Amino acid sequence: MNGRSFCARSAPTSSGDAEQEYFVDGMVEEITTAIARLPWLFVIARNSAFTYKGKAVDVKQVAQELGVRYVLEGSVRKAGNRVRITGQLIDTTTGAHIWADRFDGALDDIFALQDQVASSVAGAIEPKLRQSEIERASRKPTANLTAYDLYLRALAQAYRYTGLAEAVVFARQALAIDPSYAPAAALIGFCRGLQRLRGWGALSADDVAEACRLARQALEAGRNDAETIHQAAWTLYFLAGEAETAAAALDRALALNPNAAHAWLCRGHIHAHRNEPEAAIEAIERAHRLSPFEYTFVRAVIIAVAHLAARRFEQAIEWADCALHNQPRVVAAMWVKVVANAHLGHLDEARAELSRMLAIDPTNLTIAGFREYAHFLAPEVLELYVAGFRLAGLPEG
Question: CATH for 5-124, among 1.20.1250.20, 3.90.78.10, 3.20.20.140, 3.40.50.10610?
């Protein structure tokens, strides 16, 4: 059995309504197509899944006959022009429900509703599937770990954010087994970029060079993997300042999988730093709709930066506070608070926040040091930061 295999099936419905049957068939096909965009997941073709349509079949039997680990099961109820779609994702090895939700809508535009539900389902279950696979890999004996298992362990550490150094260790072990394994190569650069951006550990020149080299390697090798491509794009933007390369890579990632919440998050980050605040907020809202419970503090940081770039200083402070409420040591949110308060003339608040920031991340002790660090910012955004830091009392260097 392929441990990452999956199928979608519709449960029995109580109505013989032809329009409802048409909608259900289309819904299963749209969801199957959306999830099949995930290259790390083997998805059973819709024709095989349709053999179970409308039958009260035990999901473990479906799993055994199709050779899958996960089954997405759902049903549709119709009342007049309204439909309610329910879905549940089941790990067939344990029978556990690892995700369940429902969606309500009108049949005025059946195709738009199918697209909306398929996008929402695909965006919601991808992180649940990854987390389930991470938990499975973490239970495996160390002697039996493959490159994929080590990559999943690296992901588990990266998702904690405080385990970025450990994530790099696991990803390197995965590359030692398979030097061409693009997801592990991209993850190393992604973790290094996060370490620098969040102020969680200094990076050497060798660390940066390795991260950028592996990111370029991953971009060439991971041609059909949106997750790998977006992580490589992130690395090349934040560590090498290659904005055009990163933007083109993100376009490719989102063409491969329009439901890739992480890629939308990355795109929003870059828009905010390149002085495109409205595009940034739009991208972040798209990411939030696709995966509403992931990385809430990252979303808040990016929106804070977008408002700062737009000179909406009070809103920038509100969103920075939201990020710091969830993650009190996020230096990027502290930067926003220092600069926004300084531009508002709240110099006591700016200086107090600057003091807290420097206690956590003493690497940018001068204006000159910040200029060198923040080479990825658009010139006008960089000058906005510099002016705020100068007002708050950061020395020139």
Answer: 3.40.50.10610
